[in-house]
Amino acid sequence: MPIVVSYPHSAGTAAPHPLSREALWGVAAQVRRQLRAPDEPLALDMGRLVGRSAETLVNGRPVRVAWELAQPVHDDAGLSVLGVCETDPEMPGTALVSVNGPMVAGRPELALSTAAHELGHVLFDVPSALGEAGRRFRAVTALPEALLDRHAVLSERRANEFMGALLVPPVPLHLQMLAHARDEGLRTVHAAHHGRQGSRVLARGNPREAVEGVVAALAGDFGVSEGFIRVRLERYRLVQGGLVS
User: Fold this and answer.
1) Measured between alpha carbons, how far is residue 123 from residues 70, 191, 197, 203 in Å?
2) Helix runs in the chain, H state only
3) What is the pLDDT of residue 228?
4) pTM of the entire structure?
């Protein structure tokens, strides 16, 4: 059964319309519901993400995804990179996605975030590339830091925002953060945010060590890095005044 997603797009080219971050979070929520049952652990399963996304239906357009997870991956200059998403005119209707197995060995959180980022390229960039005969598409994810950047390139920024909300969505993160904050006796306040409406956020002035403990616990809950959690907490405005890295 394919992963099915829809979002505003051009009927002629299949290219996405300009999408707000909230719209990207909505697409991520569509995918997450198809990858995880409500009573399952918060961390997405890498095998399920790869297996289920082998067939996708994007705005009614079928896209097959051929995953390669074991081999080294290089950019056009021969340098090692985390991952690549590309198309080949000789394989119509197919996205070719590679995650650098040796580079992510022993780092399941990095493998998962790389795969989720490349899936973002599949869903938002590949359909328009497949719609043009003979066109090749290639997106390279170079270093782990690139997965946390608010990249200047639209396609990379979009893939990162999708990835972030797919792996760590706003409401589950907010609720889990509050649970850990209660356990640590941290102060919370009412403030505007993008999490569970009506709930509070972490207040300024909590002991840094305790806040870092909450960040570490959340990273374990969602199967991502602590840096990943810091970015999402700030993106969803769940900590008053932001976090000090």
Assistant:
1) 22, 34, 29, 37
2) 21-35, 46-52, 101-104, 108-124, 126-130, 154-167, 170-184, 208-222, 226-235
3) 96
4) 0.95
